[in-house]
């Protein structure tokens, strides 16, 4: 990366000027690039996955800045990064201050989904490469905008669908098994992505101290903060179990797409990759059975005090080459591939089935996994991103293939919200013969939070 050394010098100079701390030399890990070659990163959005992708990146990059609209979350993560790299990053409530800095090579975005597109577009136009968490977008039209800006700016953009790189290679093996014909012609693929529980009525509540609620809402409609007193335990803990904010945002269509765009963004991605459907899409999306937790009218929830994303569902998707895709909340979380000559199942913890057992006596070609990945598999998803930053080629989770598969997830939600099958033109990327459904491909941003040049 041609600007890395210069960016690092600027970062060190900036840190020395703004913080009364010493700047220790960063030790070089075995097999790691020298400190002068390390890119300078910033993370925007820091709860849960924001910290996870930051922590995975310490080996490869230096963090100059963090941003979050929750002062408590920001302070906790500044302390965590300072402990990890021996130097405190600068902290901002306003992410735009990060984009103004010339010493930062790339940003990692882990905000709620409804903020992804605005920040990503502005970051690219500010000269930054981008790593953005999945699901990349809230709407299909947002994906088209991101694609256009990637092409216009030439920036490297990694989507955080880390199953393409991590999970001990199980998903890479699954793709290789399909591509090498180990189940014959694929006839059906089932993506089990779990359901979710409905919420009780969630009343309006005081905004937590330190949270800028209006900015958290950002492009979404202005509504009151809601929460019940019971606190969430375990992963994502320390916040209300039921709310329209931290952690629970995925259960509201205003900010996300429920399980369809949460786990669907992982498993539908691998399914499409294996099927060779990363440049096309379905012809029909049919909601076979589903449960919406609140009443809907014309595709919109009629109450505002409960989760509104589907809790249970079975969606049938007509894919190219007469492949049937099922996306379901039932059964084990993972992907079942079925073909004319066999079947196997894969998830983050296992890959099982006769085609897998047969590998002992009939292994895949020696380079089968590298052919899937496009070269040696990176140590983790960040490492692949940084390699792409150096080569100026798009990484393993590019925006085009991600958007193609995410269109399936978005269309599934639209079909359930409207209660009918949707026909889709994968070439034009438009709904066929249903103007009301087609109108759900985009959504206007709240005044003051529009994307310039969109």
Low-pLDDT ranges? 2-6, 8-35
Query: How many runs of DSSP E, i.e. beta strands?
Result: 17
Number of domain units: 2
**Highest-level CATH class of the largest domain:** Alpha Beta
Structural classification = alpha/beta
For the biggest β-sheet, the strand order reads 15-14-13-7-12-11-8-16-17
Largest sheet: 9 strands, mixed
Topology record:
Blueprint: H1 4-18, E1 40-44, H2 49-57, E2 62-67, H3 71-85, E3 90-92, H4 96-99, E4 106-109, H5 113-125, E5 129-132, H6 140-153, E6 157-159, H7 170-179, E7 186-192, H8 213-217, H9 258-262, H10 264-275, E8 284-291, E9 296-297, E10 300-301, E11 312-319, E12 323-328, E13 334-339, E14 342-346, E15 351-352, H11 354-357, H12 368-373, H13 381-391, H14 399-418, E16 422-425, E17 430-432, H15 435-438
Parallel strand pairs: 1-2, 1-4, 2-3, 4-5, 5-6, 7-12
Antiparallel strand pairs: 7-13, 8-11, 8-16, 9-10, 11-12, 13-14, 14-15, 16-17
Helix pairs in contact: 5-6, 6-14, 7-10, 10-14
């Amino acid at each position: 990366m041609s600007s890395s050394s210069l960016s690092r010098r600027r970062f060190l100079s900036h840190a020395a000027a703004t913080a009364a701390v010493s700047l220790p030399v960063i030790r070089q890990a075995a097999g790691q690039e020298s400190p002068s070659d390390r890119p300078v990163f910033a993370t925007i959005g820091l709860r849960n996955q924001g910290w996870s992708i930051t922590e995975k990146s310490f080996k490869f990059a230096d963090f100059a800045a963090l941003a979050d609209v929750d002062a408590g979350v920001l302070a906790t993560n500044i302390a965590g990064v300072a402990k990890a790299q021996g130097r405190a990053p600068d902290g901002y409530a306003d992410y735009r201050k990060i984009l103004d800095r010339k010493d930062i090579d790339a940003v990692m975005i882990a905000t709620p989904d409804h903020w992804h597109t605005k920040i990503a577009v502005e970051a690219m136009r500010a000269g930054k490469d981008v790593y953005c968490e999945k699901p990349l977008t809230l709407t299909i039209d947002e994906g088209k905008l991101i694609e256009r800006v990637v092409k216009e700016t030439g920036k490297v953009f990694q989507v955080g669908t880390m199953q393409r790189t991590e999970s001990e290679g199980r998903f890479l093996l699954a793709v290789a098994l399909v591509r090498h014909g180990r189940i014959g012609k694929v006839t059906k693929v089932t993506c089990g992505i779990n359901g979710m529980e409905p919420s009780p009525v969630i009343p309006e509540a005081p905004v937590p101290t330190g949270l800028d609620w209006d900015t958290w809402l950002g492009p979404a409609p202005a509504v009151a903060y809601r929460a019940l007193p019971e606190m969430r335990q375990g992963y994502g803990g320390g916040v209300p179990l039921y709310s329209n904010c931290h952690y629970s945002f995925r259960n509201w269509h205003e900010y996300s797409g429920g399980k369809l765009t949460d786990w669907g963004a992982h498993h539908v991605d691998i399914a499409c990759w294996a099927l060779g459907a990363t440049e096309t899409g379905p012809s029909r999306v049919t909601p076979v059975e589903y449960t919406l937790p609140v009443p809907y009218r014309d595709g919109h929830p009629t109450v505002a005090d409960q989760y509104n994303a589907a809790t249970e569902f079975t969606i049938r998707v007509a894919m190219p080459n007469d492949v049937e895709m099922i996306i379901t909340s039932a059964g084990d979380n993972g992907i079942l591939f079925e073909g004319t000559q066999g079947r196997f199942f894969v998830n983050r913890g296992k890959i099982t089935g006769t085609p897998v057992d047969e590998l002992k006596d009939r292994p895949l070609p020696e380079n089968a996994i590298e052919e899937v990945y496009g070269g040696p598999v990176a140590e983790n998803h960040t490492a692949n991103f940084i390699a792409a930053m150096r080569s100026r080629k798009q990484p393993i989770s590019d925006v085009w293939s991600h958007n193609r598969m995410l269109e399936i997830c978005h269309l599934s939600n639209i079909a359930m919200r409207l209660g009918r099958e949707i026909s889709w033109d994968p070439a034009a990327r438009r709904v066929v013969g249903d103007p009301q459904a087609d109108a759900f491909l985009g959504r206007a941003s709240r005044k003051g939070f529009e994307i310039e040049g969109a």
